[in-house]
Each structure stands twice: as C-alpha cells, then as structure tokens.
Design brief:
heterodimer, A: Glutaredoxin, five-stranded mixed sheet, 6 helices, B: five-stranded antiparallel sheet, five-stranded mixed beta barrel, globular
Chain lengths: 160, 791
Amino acid sequence: MKTKKLTTIFVLILILAIAVGTYNISLSDFRLSDSNYSYLAGLTWYRSAPGLEKGFEQASLENKPIAVYFWAIWCQYCAKFQSDTLGNPQVKKILQDDYVLVAMDLDIDRDVSGKYGVSYPPYVLFLDSKGNVIERVAGAVDAGTFLPIVTQVRDQVRSK
Amino acid sequence: MITFGNQILYATLVVSAIALLGLLLKEFKKSEIFSKFVTPAILLSAGLLTFAYLLLTYYFAVSDFTYEYVWEYSSTDLPMIYKLSGTWAGQPGTYLLWVWVIFLSSAWLAITTKHSTPLERRTQIITLIIGIYFIVLTLIQTPFKSIYELPNIADMIARGDLPANFVPAAGNGLNALLVNIWMILHPPLMFIGYAGMTIPFAAAIVYLITKDEGWEELGRQWARFTWLILGMGIAVGGVWAYFILGWGGFWAWDPVETASFIPWLTLTGYLHAAALHRKNKNTFAIATPMLSAVSFILIIYAAIVVRSGLFNSVHAFGEASTGTLLLLSIGLTTLVSLGLGIKRYFEEAETAEEDRGFWNKTNVFYITLLMFVVLAFISFWGITYPVFIQITQGLKVNVASDTKNFFNVWSYPFTLILLLALGFCLNYKEPEKEKQKKTLFIVAALTILTMLPRTDNFYVLDHNSPFWVREPGIYKLIGSISVLSIFPPLIYVTASVIEYLNGYMSSTNLRVRIKGIGMTMIHIAVVLIIFGSVVSSIRTTSIERINIPIGAQGQIFDVGDGYGIRVLELSSRSLTESSSAGGTKISDVLSNPGGFSGENIQVKGKVVEVLKTQTETPPITYTAYIRLDDGTGSIWAATQSAEPISIEEGSTRSAKGFLMSQFKSSSINRTFDLVIFSRPDDVGEAAGTESGNYNVQSVKLEVYQGNNKIGSGTAEYLQGKGGSGTFPMVSPSLGLLAGDVYVIFQGTGGGSIPLTLKIIPAVDLAWIGIILFAVGIILIMSAKTKARGTG
C-alpha cells in the first residue's frame, strides 16, 4: 500500500508539473491573439465586423481595395499560407502599401463569414469600398497564384 | 400546443418517475406499495421512447418540415438513407437516442435482475435518475419542436406574410461532410456508447456508498459493450477522417475525437482494474469504481465538447443550449464521486494489504492503470486549457506551435512506460519474478539506447516541419527522441502476448481458451495500432499544392520527387435526386402554375429586378423580392432573413421553394401573381451547369513513380450545404507495409486541378488492429465466466 501511495503521489506531481508547465508555455510562447493580429504574416490587420467598417472608411478615403482574410487557429494550412503566400516579400509589400487589411477569425466572426459565404479557411475576399466582392481566393494557394491576383485587383480599383 | 412527440416524452417522464418513486419508497420506507409497478413502468418508459424514436424517424422519412429539427437536418432531395440518418445529425436527436439507450439498459436491468438484491435496486435508482435527467434535457432541446413555435415564423404568419398552414417546401439539408456512409454509423455508435456507460457508473456509485458486492459483475458486460461501441465509434471517425475528410491520416488530435478517446482510455483502465478486483475484492477497491465514475464523467464532458462550439474542431456542427445543464451534471457527479472515493479511502486505510515491496503484480499493474490515467489526462488537458484560457482571460492560445505536437510529445514517453508495464504484467509469475525483472530491465535499457540514434528524420516530432523551429526547448528535447525506441517495447509486448496465449491454450476449459484468444487479439491489436500509427504518421511522403492544368489531361504530369500523375477524366454530377435538382423552366411554371402548387420547385435566372423591404419594429426581418429571368420568362421570388440580404441586379441566382399565387405584401403594398418563397440559403448564386444541393466533382487519375503505375482511382470533391467534403483516392496498391497511394482533390479552380499526393505506409496495420479489437472483445464477452473470489 505504501508503494502505491508513493507512486500515486509521484504521478500526481508529474501531472501537475506538466499541466502548469504547458499552461505557462502556451501563455508565453503561443499566444494567438493580440490587439491588431500582427502575428498574421507580420502584417497589421483590422479585425472583425467593426474593423471591416473602419476598413470601408479607409478604403474609400484612400481609394484602396480591401483584402479580408478569413483564418482559424486550428487551420494548419493557414499557417503555411501566412508564411509562404502572405509572407512572400512581393505579396507582402503590395498588401502593406496598396491594401486595407481586415482579418476575420472564422470561429468568432461567423456573421461576416456567413454573409459572404465563406465556410472554410484560409479564404481571402477582395472587396471594394462599397462592399462589392471583386475577387475570391479560396484555399492555401501559393504566392505564384496569389501575386497576379493582388496586382490585378489593385490595378482594377485604381483605374476606377 | 404540445406536439405529439413531446406528449410522448412528457408521458415517459411521468411513467419513469413512478418507477423511481416505487424504488425509493422500497429503499427508504421499506414500503412495497409501488413495487409491483416498477418493472412495468420501466418497460413502458423504454417502449414509449422506442416509439418516440420511431416517430422521429417517420417524420424524417416523410420529410415533415413542420418540425424544426427535420427542416434543419433534412431535405426532400436527399436519398432516403441520408434522410433517416438526419435523426441523429443534430443535438436534439442525439439526446433522444442517448436517453432511449439509457432506458433500454434500464429495462435490461429490470428484466434480468427483477431488482431482487439491494445492489440491483440501488443501481436501478441511479440509472433512472440519470435517465430522467436526460429526458428533461431532451425536452429542453426537443426534436419535436414545431416550426409554428419559432418566433419569426409565428410573426410572419401573424402579419399575413405567410399562410397559417405554411409548410416549408424544402429542408435545409444535411451538412455536406456528413453525406456518406461512415457518418451514418459514427454518431449512433458514439451516443450508444455514451449511454452504455450508465449502468457500470451507477453500480460503481452504489458500491462506493454501500460496499454492496457483485457490483463489478453487474456492470461488466455493459462496460465491455461500451468499450467496444465507443472504440468502434472512434475508429469509424478515424475511417471518416481518412477516407472522406482527406486528412491524410486517421488521427489528428481534433478536440472532439480526442474528447471521446479520453473516456475510452479511462474505461480501458477500468476494465484492467476490474480484472484484478474481481479476483480479490481488496485489490484496487477504490481505483476500480473511481475509474468507472471518471469514465462516465468524461463521457458527459465529451458530449459537451462535441456540441459546444467552444472547441475549435471539424465537429462544430451545432451549438447546444443545454450545455450548462450538462456542465452542472459534470460538477455534481464529480463532487459525489470524489467525495465518496475519499471517504472510502479513509475507511479502507486500516484494512489495507501489507506491503510486499515494489516488485509484485499489483504494483506494476497499478502503474499500468496510472499510465492510462496519465494518457487520459494529457489528452484532457490539451483540449481543455486553451478553452479555459480563452474563457477566463479572453486570450486565444495554442498548445504548441503545431497542435498535434503537444499530444505526441507528452503521450510518447508514457506510452513507452505503458508498453513496458504491459509486457511485464501479462506473464507475471511470482516464482519467476527475478528472471522477468531482468528481461524488463534489458528491454528498458534497449528502449533508452534506441532513443539516441540520429536517424533520417525518424523522430517523435518532424524536424522538417515549419513548426519545428518554433517549438520550445522541452518539446524539442522529447521531439528529438528517435522513434526506433518504440520497437523494443513492441517486440517485448508481442513476445509476452504469445507466451500469454500459450498459457491460456493449455487450459482444458473452452471458455477460458476463447477468453484467452480474445485477450491475445486485443493486445496484438495494441501492437499493430501503435506500429501502424507511428510509422504511418512519421514516414508519410507528402507532395502538396499540385496544380495540374485542366488542359493537361491524359499526359503524365511530373509532380516532383519522382512521382507523376495522369488525369484521365474530370466530371461532375449531382448527388441528389435529379427531379428537383435540375431546375424548372420558368415558362413551364408560368403556363401551368396549378401543376406546381405545393411542390418544391427550383428556378434559375438572371436577376432583373430587386425590391427590398424590412420590418420597422424589432425583431427586424429583411425581405427581398427578386425577379428572375431565364430567357423563357420571368418570375418573382421572395426570401426573408434576420440579416440584410445582398442580391444585386444582373447576377445569376437560383431560387428554390414553395410557389404561391396572388400573394399580397403589405409592406411594399403590391400583389404578386406568382412568387416562390425561398429560404435565404436557397437563393444561391447559380453556378454554371451544375445544379442541385450536393454537387460532386470527380477526377479519375493514375499515379506513377518513375514509369511504374503505383496506383489509380477516383478522387472526389463534394460541395453542398455547410461546406465541402473531399473524398480522396485511396489505392492500397503498395501492400501491407508500404501502404496506400492517397490523392486529395480540392475541387477545380482557376483552370487547374489542385491535388495533394501522399504515400502513406503501414496504415492498414492500424485498420487490422481495430478489427482485432472488436473481434477480441466480442470473444471475451461471449465467454462469460462466473466471478471468482466473491461470494
């Protein structure tokens, strides 16, 4: 009985250590939310439905198209899409300079995703300042596919 | 007005309360007044619930859309089998299934035991309390809710926008991901498994309170049954993920599959503890009932995870309003079980066995039990604390850079210990203890040595993954253990199992031999499943983001790494019945409106006129009238929604629904000759030549390695309500070890065919293991032996 008690206590301490350790690691290393979603491909995004409203204002002031990026934490393709496609230097530069960026968390911003018929991440929606859909990019496309689209959408909006 | 189905549920509530009352009077007042009603009342409750379930099935069969649940989860154009499986597609239906099975097990208890002993009577009391609780849950989220009880429908009828006998023409349909044979099986297996745990739990609680003997035997077959059904439910989920979802694997630590795996682990621990407990009732006298209680609690937790929507998962099919009640029941059962367990612990302390040193069977066996608990805890913790942080601090966190790394890293070392303990315990014999200890030490030493080699990326974590560099130190440390270290324990277990089988086969008793074969199968299955999952997940070759131009059909397209793919044919079809899916010419409707009245019709055309209106007082409802022109004529369609509707003139739309003539709208003050009423979802953007709710694109292809064809088949992509499903091509052409050629097709887009190619080895071993699990436990259940050692 003594042995069992000791093993139980040992295992309980072990479990507790793992629990506390992982909890703290997550809080320090794997935070997925901050105020501006700057972790998404190193770009600064507006967020959620109010962010989209602000995005519309800024877009009409500056005559820029809006890129709405739908993502989710559990979406592993999103991580790849962010690092390889959005993070591609050419793509990133165009997005940074010529676009108004809005990020939508599919788990939270269900109303917006429902309204635009977005059901899975990653998904990028290109809107003009009036909210009309210019282009849709579904899935984790590579930079080679994505770059011509961001260029074309930008030029289309500018020429208006 | 209470619907017929709900009347049945209320009746069941009353009848089962009578049964409970009878048992309680007998228990506390020694009164027999109601005793003779108990068994009939329980049988009647089970019968009523059977009838209720059949009634629901009937509503689905005839597509009675006056019930919200049927409207939500069925559609007239679905094939019959999918209409029927709609009964368990959502929360209300699964509650009904759950409570039905609880009462079936309660009826079994009543018939087989007649409540002749206090243990049986008390177990029935707890079973009935749980059953009644679930009837209440079912009533709160009832599948028998009429659409006329829905506020917006009632409003529209009151305003005259809908006729009083309004019946929606078409249902909402089933989520596209659920439209396949595996998903017909998966939910009922899970919920029957959940329900099967009720009696072992009830018996364990009674034992903890009263020390009534025979509790383990009473719940034994139910516990095994639950283990089988729940295990098969999880396995079918894995099959679904592999063959339908296109995960390229059968296990991805998705919160919901993990949630069901947790009680299955503790239940496995329970079955092991019970095996020793039944031989000597002082062995694991507290651990055994506690494992049973914990399994039950974790099952309710799994039910919460499945439906809460809090856990980010592919399973987020619906949100529950009864979540708080389930949480409450978890809190209550946890408090009761823990309290009883602690109380028993202090009572038991004096009568403890004497300490025989560390190395004896009970102690090592106890480590096995602890390992099940630790593994269960790791899974529990990994899905729970991110949600906890999200709720308490409003922060989203991940458990690791790549979610599955958390579970793999922490589970791996404990799996090794579990395997070593298993190999040791299977053949433990007191006289050979020293020799067996020596073998264990050698294997343990080999295990540690084989952790060290620097092999070609054969580690616990994938060093080539983009996530690897971002993992913290402890993950990198454990992640760098070579997976070669799994082989010494696996070989050790295999050898032990063979020796164990020999021991059983020397028995002359047929039942004992059958039981031995069953247990051997299960433990061999453990080896196969662990081998299959480790090798398949680590050695999979994956080529992603292949884009084959549609024009390149017929040629072998080089996709890299020496592989080539030849696309033979690209086609698309509608899964649903063509009669309603094809769409009707508007001129046909205009020329003969009477022929379409009350029917589900679908038209498609260009939007030539849009009128929008909304109610001025809350709840605000938006209505859009659109005139569709398909070239043969034009017709009005109307749709309503709680959100603004965005439909532009010039776009091509389809409308599907119920045809109404001489419809007068007071809000825009206009009368329409004919108008088609559609749900917002059914006013879709009409896409090209496709039609219907569920469209399948399929691509027939061949996979080459160099010039050799290594696999061929069809990969499909289904688009429908709620998203899309990928039906990958799985060609098991490489054999048992080398595995499957696996191609995922994501649906055509941008003039190309996007594909992912995977070569997945050894996965078949896991499937074989799952089959052995099932056959093994069925053999053990069939070879029921009398409990030894107890009176």
